[in-house]
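seq:
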Amino acid sequence: MAFLELENLNKEFGTHRAVDGLTLAVEKGEFVSLLGPSGCGKTTTLQMIAGFVEPSGGAIRLEGRDLLAVKPARRGLGIVFQSYALFPHMTVAENVSFGLEMQGVARAERGKRVGETLELVGLGAFAERHPRQLSGGQQQRVALARALVIRPRILLLDEPLSNLDAKLREEMQIELRQIQRGVGTTTILVTHDQAEAMALSDRIVVMNKGRVEQIGPPHEAYERPATPFVANFLGKTNLMNGASVRPERVSFATSGLAGTVRTRIFQGNHWLYQIDTAGGLVTVIRQNSGEAMPAEGAAVHLAWSGS
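struct:
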Protein backbone atom coordinates (compact mmCIF):
# COMPACT_ATOMS: atom_id res chain seq x y z
CA MET A 1 0.00 0.00 0.00
CA ALA A 2 1.39 3.38 -1.03
CA PHE A 3 1.57 6.28 1.45
CA LEU A 4 -0.68 8.50 -0.70
CA GLU A 5 -3.02 7.06 -3.33
CA LEU A 6 -5.01 8.92 -5.95
CA GLU A 7 -7.37 6.51 -7.71
CA ASN A 8 -9.24 7.40 -10.91
CA LEU A 9 -9.53 11.00 -9.74
CA ASN A 10 -11.85 13.25 -11.75
CA LYS A 11 -12.90 16.87 -11.54
CA GLU A 12 -15.48 18.56 -13.73
CA PHE A 13 -16.33 22.26 -13.87
CA GLY A 14 -19.61 22.32 -15.79
CA THR A 15 -18.90 20.57 -19.09
CA HIS A 16 -15.12 20.95 -18.72
CA ARG A 17 -13.23 17.97 -17.28
CA ALA A 18 -10.18 19.51 -15.59
CA VAL A 19 -8.82 16.19 -14.27
CA ASP A 20 -9.61 12.98 -16.10
CA GLY A 21 -9.01 9.59 -14.49
CA LEU A 22 -5.77 10.41 -12.66
CA THR A 23 -4.24 7.48 -10.78
CA LEU A 24 -1.02 7.94 -8.80
CA ALA A 25 0.72 6.18 -5.90
CA VAL A 26 3.23 8.23 -3.87
CA GLU A 27 5.63 6.56 -1.45
CA LYS A 28 6.53 7.99 1.97
CA GLY A 29 9.37 10.50 1.69
CA GLU A 30 9.09 10.77 -2.09
CA PHE A 31 9.31 14.06 -4.01
CA VAL A 32 6.81 14.03 -6.89
CA SER A 33 6.14 16.88 -9.33
CA LEU A 34 2.92 17.44 -11.25
CA LEU A 35 4.23 18.99 -14.46
CA GLY A 36 2.40 20.44 -17.42
CA PRO A 37 1.22 23.57 -19.20
CA SER A 38 -1.41 25.97 -17.85
CA GLY A 39 -4.84 24.34 -17.74
CA CYS A 40 -3.55 20.75 -17.64
CA GLY A 41 -5.16 20.00 -14.25
CA LYS A 42 -2.09 19.97 -12.01
CA THR A 43 -3.20 22.74 -9.63
CA THR A 44 -6.73 21.32 -9.45
CA THR A 45 -5.20 17.97 -8.45
CA LEU A 46 -3.19 19.62 -5.68
CA GLN A 47 -6.28 21.47 -4.46
CA MET A 48 -8.24 18.20 -4.30
CA ILE A 49 -5.49 16.66 -2.14
CA ALA A 50 -5.53 19.75 0.09
CA GLY A 51 -9.33 19.67 0.35
CA PHE A 52 -9.95 23.06 -1.27
CA VAL A 53 -11.70 21.47 -4.26
CA GLU A 54 -14.06 18.49 -4.04
CA PRO A 55 -13.49 15.74 -6.63
CA SER A 56 -16.29 14.80 -9.03
CA GLY A 57 -15.22 11.18 -8.73
CA GLY A 58 -12.45 8.88 -7.58
CA ALA A 59 -10.64 8.38 -4.29
CA ILE A 60 -7.78 9.92 -2.30
CA ARG A 61 -6.27 7.79 0.46
CA LEU A 62 -3.51 8.62 2.93
CA GLU A 63 -2.03 5.55 4.62
CA GLY A 64 -5.16 3.68 3.57
CA ARG A 65 -7.55 6.22 5.12
CA ASP A 66 -10.16 8.03 3.05
CA LEU A 67 -8.78 11.59 2.93
CA LEU A 68 -11.95 12.96 1.35
CA ALA A 69 -13.79 12.28 4.61
CA VAL A 70 -11.36 14.53 6.52
CA LYS A 71 -11.81 18.31 6.71
CA PRO A 72 -8.97 20.30 5.07
CA ALA A 73 -7.73 21.76 8.36
CA ARG A 74 -7.42 18.28 9.86
CA ARG A 75 -5.56 16.61 6.99
CA GLY A 76 -2.15 17.46 8.46
CA LEU A 77 -0.79 18.98 5.26
CA GLY A 78 1.74 21.78 4.85
CA ILE A 79 1.08 24.12 1.93
CA VAL A 80 3.29 26.74 0.27
CA PHE A 81 1.56 29.01 -2.23
CA GLN A 82 2.98 30.94 -5.15
CA SER A 83 2.26 34.22 -3.31
CA TYR A 84 3.80 32.96 0.00
CA ALA A 85 0.73 34.45 1.81
CA LEU A 86 2.77 35.76 4.74
CA PHE A 87 1.13 37.99 7.34
CA PRO A 88 2.77 41.42 6.86
CA HIS A 89 2.09 42.63 10.42
CA MET A 90 3.74 39.58 12.00
CA THR A 91 7.44 38.92 12.47
CA VAL A 92 9.11 35.95 10.81
CA ALA A 93 8.88 33.96 14.06
CA GLU A 94 5.20 34.85 14.49
CA ASN A 95 4.43 33.83 10.91
CA VAL A 96 6.09 30.47 11.39
CA SER A 97 4.45 29.98 14.79
CA PHE A 98 0.93 30.66 13.53
CA GLY A 99 0.07 27.08 12.53
CA LEU A 100 1.32 25.73 15.85
CA GLU A 101 -0.91 28.19 17.70
CA MET A 102 -3.90 26.96 15.69
CA GLN A 103 -2.99 23.43 16.76
CA GLY A 104 -2.87 24.48 20.42
CA VAL A 105 0.84 23.68 20.86
CA ALA A 106 2.21 25.01 24.16
CA ARG A 107 4.27 28.23 24.06
CA ALA A 108 7.59 26.62 25.08
CA GLU A 109 7.24 23.88 22.47
CA ARG A 110 6.24 26.45 19.85
CA GLY A 111 9.36 28.50 20.52
CA LYS A 112 11.58 25.44 20.30
CA ARG A 113 10.10 24.21 17.04
CA VAL A 114 10.06 27.65 15.43
CA GLY A 115 13.72 28.15 16.29
CA GLU A 116 14.69 24.74 14.92
CA THR A 117 12.76 25.23 11.70
CA LEU A 118 14.15 28.71 11.05
CA GLU A 119 17.65 27.29 11.47
CA LEU A 120 16.75 24.52 9.03
CA VAL A 121 15.88 27.06 6.32
CA GLY A 122 18.82 29.32 7.14
CA LEU A 123 16.82 32.15 8.77
CA GLY A 124 17.72 31.77 12.42
CA ALA A 125 19.01 35.35 12.58
CA PHE A 126 15.87 36.82 10.95
CA ALA A 127 13.25 35.78 13.51
CA GLU A 128 12.30 39.33 14.56
CA ARG A 129 12.15 40.86 11.08
CA HIS A 130 8.94 41.51 9.16
CA PRO A 131 8.27 40.16 5.65
CA ARG A 132 8.79 43.61 4.07
CA GLN A 133 12.38 43.55 5.37
CA LEU A 134 13.17 40.30 3.53
CA SER A 135 14.16 39.46 -0.02
CA GLY A 136 11.93 37.30 -2.20
CA GLY A 137 14.06 34.24 -1.52
CA GLN A 138 13.94 34.84 2.23
CA GLN A 139 10.16 35.25 2.14
CA GLN A 140 9.92 31.96 0.26
CA ARG A 141 11.94 30.25 2.99
CA VAL A 142 9.66 31.73 5.69
CA ALA A 143 6.66 30.25 3.87
CA LEU A 144 8.46 26.92 3.67
CA ALA A 145 9.33 27.04 7.38
CA ARG A 146 5.70 27.82 8.26
CA ALA A 147 4.61 24.74 6.29
CA LEU A 148 7.28 22.47 7.77
CA VAL A 149 7.00 23.53 11.43
CA ILE A 150 3.68 21.72 11.86
CA ARG A 151 5.49 18.50 10.84
CA PRO A 152 3.09 17.81 7.96
CA ARG A 153 2.42 14.34 6.66
CA ILE A 154 2.62 15.78 3.14
CA LEU A 155 4.11 19.05 1.90
CA LEU A 156 2.20 20.61 -1.01
CA LEU A 157 4.03 23.21 -3.11
CA ASP A 158 2.06 25.29 -5.62
CA GLU A 159 4.54 27.03 -7.98
CA PRO A 160 6.50 28.27 -4.93
CA LEU A 161 9.52 29.57 -6.87
CA SER A 162 7.80 31.23 -9.83
CA ASN A 163 8.11 34.78 -8.44
CA LEU A 164 11.90 34.58 -8.10
CA ASP A 165 14.45 35.68 -10.69
CA ALA A 166 16.28 32.98 -12.66
CA LYS A 167 19.49 32.89 -10.58
CA LEU A 168 17.71 32.93 -7.20
CA ARG A 169 15.22 30.36 -8.46
CA GLU A 170 18.06 27.97 -9.30
CA GLU A 171 19.65 28.51 -5.88
CA MET A 172 16.32 27.91 -4.14
CA GLN A 173 15.77 24.69 -6.10
CA ILE A 174 19.00 23.34 -4.61
CA GLU A 175 18.06 24.52 -1.11
CA LEU A 176 14.54 23.12 -1.35
CA ARG A 177 15.79 19.70 -2.42
CA GLN A 178 18.39 19.62 0.36
CA ILE A 179 15.79 20.62 2.97
CA GLN A 180 13.29 18.05 1.69
CA ARG A 181 15.89 15.28 1.75
CA GLY A 182 16.99 16.29 5.24
CA VAL A 183 13.47 16.37 6.67
CA GLY A 184 12.17 13.43 4.64
CA THR A 185 8.68 14.91 4.20
CA THR A 186 6.60 13.46 1.36
CA THR A 187 6.35 16.35 -1.11
CA ILE A 188 4.16 17.12 -4.11
CA LEU A 189 5.15 20.07 -6.28
CA VAL A 190 3.04 21.75 -8.96
CA THR A 191 5.09 23.45 -11.66
CA HIS A 192 5.05 24.29 -15.34
CA ASP A 193 8.87 24.56 -15.36
CA GLN A 194 10.42 21.43 -16.87
CA ALA A 195 13.93 22.15 -15.56
CA GLU A 196 12.59 22.70 -12.04
CA ALA A 197 10.63 19.45 -12.03
CA MET A 198 13.60 17.46 -13.35
CA ALA A 199 16.00 19.06 -10.86
CA LEU A 200 13.87 18.43 -7.76
CA SER A 201 11.85 15.28 -8.29
CA ASP A 202 12.20 11.59 -7.65
CA ARG A 203 9.37 11.17 -10.18
CA ILE A 204 7.45 13.50 -12.44
CA VAL A 205 3.82 13.23 -13.53
CA VAL A 206 3.51 14.86 -16.94
CA MET A 207 -0.06 16.08 -17.46
CA ASN A 208 -1.88 17.36 -20.54
CA LYS A 209 -5.53 18.36 -20.82
CA GLY A 210 -6.43 16.73 -17.52
CA ARG A 211 -4.81 13.38 -18.26
CA VAL A 212 -1.51 11.78 -17.30
CA GLU A 213 0.85 11.36 -20.24
CA GLN A 214 3.71 9.73 -18.33
CA ILE A 215 4.86 8.97 -14.78
CA GLY A 216 8.49 8.17 -14.08
CA PRO A 217 11.92 9.36 -12.94
CA PRO A 218 12.94 12.60 -14.69
CA HIS A 219 15.79 11.05 -16.69
CA GLU A 220 13.52 8.26 -17.90
CA ALA A 221 10.80 10.64 -19.08
CA TYR A 222 13.41 12.81 -20.79
CA GLU A 223 15.33 10.00 -22.47
CA ARG A 224 12.36 7.72 -23.19
CA PRO A 225 9.27 9.91 -23.59
CA ALA A 226 6.07 7.85 -23.76
CA THR A 227 4.24 10.24 -26.09
CA PRO A 228 5.08 13.02 -28.57
CA PHE A 229 3.67 15.54 -26.08
CA VAL A 230 6.17 14.44 -23.39
CA ALA A 231 9.04 14.52 -25.89
CA ASN A 232 8.20 18.09 -26.89
CA PHE A 233 7.28 19.37 -23.43
CA LEU A 234 10.45 18.11 -21.73
CA GLY A 235 12.83 20.28 -23.73
CA LYS A 236 13.63 20.43 -27.43
CA THR A 237 13.61 17.33 -29.61
CA ASN A 238 14.15 16.26 -33.22
CA LEU A 239 12.37 13.54 -35.15
CA MET A 240 15.08 11.52 -36.92
CA ASN A 241 14.03 8.53 -39.01
CA GLY A 242 10.93 8.23 -36.85
CA ALA A 243 12.90 8.40 -33.55
CA SER A 244 12.98 11.31 -31.08
CA VAL A 245 16.56 12.60 -30.70
CA ARG A 246 17.46 15.31 -28.20
CA PRO A 247 19.48 18.26 -29.61
CA GLU A 248 22.44 17.61 -27.32
CA ARG A 249 22.79 14.11 -28.84
CA VAL A 250 23.34 15.57 -32.33
CA SER A 251 26.91 16.49 -33.28
CA PHE A 252 28.77 17.92 -36.25
CA ALA A 253 30.61 15.23 -38.20
CA THR A 254 32.63 14.63 -41.36
CA SER A 255 29.79 12.57 -42.82
CA GLY A 256 26.13 11.95 -42.15
CA LEU A 257 22.99 14.01 -42.70
CA ALA A 258 23.95 17.02 -44.84
CA GLY A 259 22.64 20.47 -43.99
CA THR A 260 23.21 24.20 -43.84
CA VAL A 261 23.38 26.33 -40.71
CA ARG A 262 20.31 28.58 -40.66
CA THR A 263 20.80 30.04 -37.18
CA ARG A 264 23.37 29.89 -34.41
CA ILE A 265 22.82 31.49 -31.01
CA PHE A 266 25.42 31.79 -28.26
CA GLN A 267 23.91 30.99 -24.84
CA GLY A 268 26.96 31.12 -22.60
CA ASN A 269 27.73 27.52 -21.75
CA HIS A 270 26.40 26.21 -25.07
CA TRP A 271 25.61 27.03 -28.70
CA LEU A 272 22.08 26.57 -30.08
CA TYR A 273 21.91 25.75 -33.79
CA GLN A 274 19.13 25.32 -36.33
CA ILE A 275 20.19 23.31 -39.37
CA ASP A 276 18.26 23.07 -42.64
CA THR A 277 18.36 19.49 -43.95
CA ALA A 278 16.51 17.43 -46.54
CA GLY A 279 14.59 15.87 -43.64
CA GLY A 280 13.55 19.24 -42.21
CA LEU A 281 14.85 21.65 -39.58
CA VAL A 282 17.16 20.04 -36.98
CA THR A 283 18.02 21.65 -33.63
CA VAL A 284 21.54 21.08 -32.31
CA ILE A 285 22.96 21.99 -28.90
CA ARG A 286 26.74 21.87 -28.50
CA GLN A 287 28.61 22.68 -25.31
CA ASN A 288 30.88 25.71 -25.44
CA SER A 289 34.29 24.06 -25.25
CA GLY A 290 36.12 27.05 -26.73
CA GLU A 291 36.69 25.40 -30.11
CA ALA A 292 35.66 27.06 -33.37
CA MET A 293 32.01 26.40 -34.30
CA PRO A 294 30.30 26.46 -37.72
CA ALA A 295 29.06 29.87 -38.81
CA GLU A 296 25.63 30.73 -40.19
CA GLY A 297 25.42 29.62 -43.81
CA ALA A 298 28.09 26.92 -43.39
CA ALA A 299 27.61 23.47 -44.92
CA VAL A 300 27.69 20.76 -42.23
CA HIS A 301 27.03 17.06 -41.66
CA LEU A 302 25.14 15.75 -38.65
CA ALA A 303 25.46 12.51 -36.70
CA TRP A 304 23.68 11.36 -33.56
CA SER A 305 23.58 8.62 -30.98
CA GLY A 306 20.41 6.89 -29.76
CA SER A 307 17.43 8.84 -28.39
